[in-house]
Specification:
By secondary structure, the protein is of the alpha/beta class. It is built from nine helices and ten strands. The structure holds zinc ion.
Amino acid sequence: MSKLAIGAHVGQENPIEQAISLGLDHIQLFVGDPQGWKASVIPHPEGAEGLKAQAEAAGIGIYVHARYLINVATSNNKVRIPSRKMLQSDVDAAASIGAKGVIVHGGHVTADDDAQLGFDNWAKALAQLDMKVPVFIENTAGGQHAMARRADAIKKLWDAVGDTEVGFCLDTCHAHAGGIPIESAAETILGITGRIDLVHCNNSRDEFDSGADRHANLAVGKIDMDALIACLAKANAPIVLETPHDAVADDITALRSAF
Ligand SMILES: [Zn+2]
């Protein structure tokens, strides 16, 4: 199998030191409080230039996970407008540290909304966004009104945004829990989007199509390990582990032996 770059989500304390100690090719991190609406914060005592220089010197790539509260699809102005601003803020912060991409969840509308509104809101958000670094929309696990849970929704999302530069991040836990079989997940996404720019490699604590978003270490979840590795090979994209920290070293070892 071809060599795939392997990384993991790390905390905002000494992220490059963590990457070096885990032997990672790249990291993913938040720039600021993932559950807050506060301004983006670069996790380095010398700011963006300091983190960028340290990452470059160590040969570590950086991906930024946009904040969890961002939902550019919603019909609620009080969430949609700040979401657009925060996504831009995280993209700007990512550009300042030389990041390779920003990953943002697909978001959702409410039960009262026509789902098409959410797809159209995505197109509007991207039309306004200054994509200084690549932005990847990530599939999500739960909800009945999500823009990027099931394949039929992702197809409609791509009908709305597929003519932009936006890319796709396939989360394997979210696919399984969201109702996309892992055995065909990479083909399903590639058939719709024509691209997988990044893979969030996680096992799932829950059953297929449960709608639950609970990541597991690779050896202990409900997704068959061989099927997971085959999915990663077909996706053929850089990998980020978002698995429980206690056993992430074992997950890295498993991926290194596969790729
Ligand atoms: Zn993820």
